[in-house]
Automatic annotation (TrEMBL):
The keyword Amino-acid biosynthesis does not apply. It comes from Paraburkholderia rhynchosiae. Keywords: Bacterial flagellum biogenesis, Cell projection, Cilium, Flagellum. Required for the efficient initiation of filament assembly. One of its GO terms (biological process) is bacterial-type flagellum assembly. Pfam families: FlgN (PF05130). This is Flagellar biosynthesis protein FlgN.
Length: 148
């Protein structure tokens, strides 16, 4: 069962590395002038990898339970303390996961900055183009003129 757990950790490490690579592509897309056409395939790949990682985590927890260990991080720590090969692979997986977490946090900040910029641009446009009588409003209608 330790070999199956080791194999799962190796698969999980590969999936996390793939996820980190996709996050790097996402960073490049988010810093591009027009990311709209670049992001959909990246989001699809991220979604698929998240599903794969969830399945691998479930499998890892099942294997840990079969070995008499608790699920999650605590169980892996106990299992790794008893086997050098597991400890090495677990360490690699944790480092890869931390790297992916940093990329994801950075991308979240890039998205926030872009959203703030877009909101400020929209506000500036709304101030620069006040509603004038006879012009269509956002609902496609000409606003009623106030009674004099």
């Amino acid at each position: 069962m330790k070999d199956a757990l080791l194999a799962t950790l190796i698969e999980e490490y590969s999936a996390v590395e793939a996820f980190a690579s996709v996050l790097t592509l996402e960073t490049k897309a988010l810093t591009a002038l027009s990311p709209v056409e670049l992001l959909p395939p990246i989001i699809e790949k991220k979604t698929a990898l998240i599903g794969e990682l969830a399945q691998l985590e479930t499998r890892r927890d099942e294997l840990l339970a079969g070995m008499g260990f608790p699920a999650g991080w605590a169980g892996m720590e106990v299992a790794a303390s008893a086997d050098e090969r597991l400890a090495g692979q677990w360490s690699l997986l944790q480092k890869a996961a931390e790297r992916a977490r940093r990329f994801n946090t950075s991308n979240g900040e890039l998205i926030r900055v872009r959203m703030d910029y877009n909101q400020r641009a929209l506000t500036a446009l709304q101030v620069a183009l006040p509603q004038k009588a006879g012009f269509y409003g956002p609902d496609g209608r000409i606003p009623a003129r106030p009674a004099v």
